[in-house]
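Researcher: Can you fold this with 2'-deoxyguanosine-5'-triphosphate in place?
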Amino acid sequence: MNQEIAKIFYEIAEILEMKEVAFKPRAYQKAAQSIQGLDENVKTIFEKKGIKGLEEISGVGEGIAERIVEYIKKGKIKGYEKLKKEMPVNISELVSIEGVGPKLIKLFYEKLKVRNINDLEKAARHGKISTLPRCGKKLEQKILQGIEFYKKSHERFLLGDVFELAEKIKSRLSELKETEKIEAAGSFRRKKETIGDLDILVVSEKPKKVMDFFVSMPEVRHVYGKGLKKTMVRLSNGLDVDLRVVDEKSFGSALQYFTGNKAHNIELRKIALKKKYKLNEYGLFKVGSKKSEVRIAGQNEKEIYKKLGLQFMPPETRENTGEIELAQKNKLSEFIEEKDIKGDLHIHSHWKVKKGLIKERIKKAKELGYEYLGISDHTKFLAIEHGLNEQDLLKQSKEIERFRLHVSGFKILHGCEANILTDGSIDIDDKVLSKLDYVIAGVHSQMKMSKEKMTERIITAMKNPHVDIIAHLTGRVIQRREEYEIDFDKILRVAKETGTILEINANPVRLDLNDVKIRKAKEFGVKMIISSDAHQNEQMDLMKFGVWQARRGWAEKKDIVNTMSFKEISGLFKKPKKKRF
Ligand code: DGT
Ligand code: CA
Ligand code: CA
């Protein structure tokens, strides 16, 4: 509920800003920010402490608290609905075009009736934008470029953005008594970082019931086509979903086929042909003389790989990038699994502004079955994140020491996520760094640097004997910020030499390192760590996205240091960096 309310408040702020209302936009924005960052659901707060509890949230005054209560009780906010009527434009969509802000949106709506990106594109293409006051040809061009970029990056969905929805749809369908088997295939099953569309397979004797239910789901906005074997819909968030009902005896082969990817399938079919078999979505068949066909596999996916003389390949690896050759030679390793993860070392507790969160993080870590947790708040250079300075870190160490006395059967490490400054130095004194259990360092500023300079900057940080881990190496934010250019080979060599660990940031908007880089790091013998980088408790659940990415990069348990026991990993950090691996 917090995210929904935050989104509405952000939008109210933007509409009010368009209307040039004073002060209020900022108030809504601030409230949205703190609600977004809350660990507890506002509904729970309200149930426990009433409206007074809501007013305790930073940036939430009486008026805004009332709006929240309204939303909790009625699922909508009247004032917001009214604002939307006056200004019926898709603001959150329009503001994501670079160069377009609330004032321009208002102008475009009033003068050109622009309500969404499509309208805006038309207006710009017809040269209407440049006829408006203070809007030249330059702006018009910039807007067209912005739209181009927006479209390119919005054709696909982040796995992290659709994961829960997909699971929800799957579980609803699987609860139908008419559904015998269900599985999601395609890029979703391969755990690709972005998903073009979702492909679901079902086995059922009563396909009509399943399809009727499917198109009646509340999220379905448009039905492209509905049949007994295949139905295609678009959901209200824009995601397309294909649902196929297949025969029980073909379920394994359909799953194999629709999992893909296409190149992997083509290779597999070639192998089948060599063996005088035929492979398609209905099964694996032996082709006899006179073209007679005998099914030799189909119900079970594993059986298909086996009959083709191949080791089973996890869906994450099926990209035809060498996995088939290795499987033929029986040389495919076992890849890391979620259950191998024993702890998370990149965890923020916002200690400077809120003291109680370490305890909550520990509780959550225990729920996740971890053996240890590392607290690693931002450091002083990052003022917007309330970074800790040297003194704060030392004080925090003492507090963590106290926690250790009170928490049994669980280990806590104390680190920080320090900043790599432009010259490669770290924003915290070496003396203090040496007192921490471990140090993560990352680039958080000045990202526009030449490839050489950025590489040097990171290498200098890796050579610091106190820096154990480099966070989110390339700085990318998927579909929003390109990675900065670095000489990755050079960085890998230095990481290996210095014993520096590279992070696989599990946040689905980052997934940094990506799959290709993970595979290369492994080839170089560089060790990695998978981290949630959680700023809220619920983000600690993101670890799985990092594990999947690691599997896509063929990482094994031994490549990832947070599969180690507490004893091993704390022992590791105590050794000088160069002697670790
Ligand atoms: P996406 O949706 O763009 O993220 O990627 P996929 O891999 O889910 O692709 P999609 O939805 O077009 O098709 C699902 C799977 O079906 C794909 O991974 C492999 C299989 N497939 C689709 N078209 C063909 C084809 O023409 N030949 C073969 N062999 N397989 C295909
Ligand atoms: Ca797909
Ligand atoms: Ca598809």
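Model: Folded with 2'-deoxyguanosine-5'-triphosphate in place. The domain at 2-153 is CATH 1.10.150.110 (DNA polymerase; domain 1).
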